[in-house]
Protein 1
Amino acid sequence: MSEATATPTPTPEPFRQNLSALRNAVFELHKILIESERATYEQTVGTIPSPGYFLQLLTTDPWFAWLHPLSQMVVTMDVALDSKKDPLTAAAAEVLIQQTRQLLTPSETGEGFARHYYDALQRDPEVLFAHATAVRLARPVKPAS
């Protein structure tokens, strides 16, 4: 087996930097969505009595379940960026960027994440601003010539 097939080509720095910046933007969007959903939950259901109870709601309550795909995307990016065993390749970085673009596509008539995301974008300007930042960073990266 040749060395070229045994070891994947490391990610060119622009791809790694873009994925890292996108990860940070998606993480910030995630935090803002959590706070937005918390506010909506408390207006509808009532005050959340403690941080521990809120964490339990985030992980087990159907109200917050729609956020799980975004949580998973952040974790997936973290693993890809931090893996020493499997170095991130440009192709793998582009796949993650493409998956993020698809995930961050709201839908007024859709269901699941896309529908809830659409609703959050309509009701909360902070979500809209964080979305704009993440979508801008999720554009395809053109490799340096």
Note: The radius of gyration is 18 Å.
Protein 2
Amino acid sequence: MERPGVDDYLQQGMYGQKQTKPDERRKFLGTIRERIVFALVQKQVRKKGILPQAESLMRENKEAHLYLNGNMSYSYLSKYIKMAEKYGIHYTMVTNKEHNSDIGLVFAYGHAIDKKEIYIDEKAKPQPSVPQTKKKSFFAKLFK
């Protein structure tokens, strides 16, 4: 492995530490997609109340970290901050003056989990955690 030279130190001093996937980190408030449990766009965060799917995922993943878009009004974010405090979840306000992401908040781990779908669909019905068995009809019981 090659040792860093004077030019490398100058570049780092002028432009900061090199990062992997800088565009992805700007979009997802400092983290990368493969670490995300769920993400909400700003429109979802502005809605009245807390999304039940978000609360359920926060309750189940207390070791994850909550990243909040600091460019949004605190009045919209405060309900999620209170919920994070309720479950003992650490959170960070991320403010990027150069780029305002359409993402309102991100709930992510410090390591990769590679979840397929990270955006919460408000129209989808929550899936029950216990599979429901189909009840047999009256006639099925008779002809058994």
Note: The longest strand covers residues 36-41.
Protein 3
Amino acid sequence: MSASTEMPYFINPSLPFTASEKEVAYAQAKEELSLLLDKDSTLITKMASINCVLKTHLPYFYWVGFYMINNGRLEVGPYQGTLGCLYIDLGRGVCGKAAQTKETQIVEDCHALIQGSEHIACDPNSHSEIVVPVFDPEKELMAVFDVDSTLTGSFDEVDQKWLELILAATFGA
């Protein structure tokens, strides 16, 4: 199956947000998640809720989801958007690099990266990306959180700060 550049009918293109709009939206999303989730929420419930709440509050999120560590590679977990890659080897693409380095990766222009090694093009409509490592309470890597935008340059230090904060608060590391 090959990816199409035609935007699926059920997915909207990304809308730009200023830094101040991001701050407000992230604060609202974090508050909503803190009211929605509790210590007894399951892993899948947490992941699905984060996807939904963030995609609702941040209209430049085109694809949002988790890739979970499984048998030494990343495996797609809960997400919202077009079909994602099912498996990603550690060190391959932006998600694999974030998992391998355990550091957030921000990509201004996905199409400027070497396809297949630096970036894995699951959807040609994705133009920029942020990938944040997700740690469990023992500070072990359990997943990466991947967000794509149809706009170039959507993600910055505001996104990094808030996503790292929300993920740490939710998963306990």
Note: The longest helix spans residues 19-36.
